[in-house]
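Bit of a strange request maybe. I'm writing a small parser for structure token strings and I need a real example to test against, not something I typed by hand. Could someone generate the tokens for this chain?
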Amino acid sequence: MPIQKKKFIRKHYFIAPGFQLRYIRVILSVMFGVGALAAYTVYYQTMILFGEKLSNVYPQGRLVAIVKSINIQILFSLLLITPLLIVIGIFLSHRIAGPIYRMERFLGALSKGDLVNRVTLRKKDELKSLADGLNMVIDSLRDRVNAERQIADKLRATIRELEKRSADAGLINSLKEEISDLESSLSKYTL
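Reply from user aminoacidic:
Good idea to test on real output. This should exercise your parser:
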């Protein structure tokens, strides 16, 4: 019986707030760090190369006003780009948070004996190798449970045959109880 893949459409992008906020915080820290380093480098180089020439051309008050204007423009640019980076961070972090959420749900169902479901990720999601590994584990478990059920079926058929041939009901009842225990254990799994 072929297993059909479900197509998942994102409904919520902010699925693991703690993880995603840390991810966004790292992106913003890197952005502000790079922005500060770039601004410092530009200012330092500007002051070394043009500082003396600019101070001869512009009065000191005017030069300070120009530097303040540049500072405000850089800060405004960083603040303007921050919401865009937050949105990008949410989308990028969802590629990791979404699969983690889906795997947590899958493992919760697996712990309850559900061997029907598989981990299905979207095309651009991360952690596909982990999902493939989990799917291999579930396939292996499903095969083992099916093999044990087949053994239980064979035992049941053997008992029926023994019932027809034998008058020793005690041994047969003991086998029936053991098969019942095996079936009870196997019934915890959903295939």
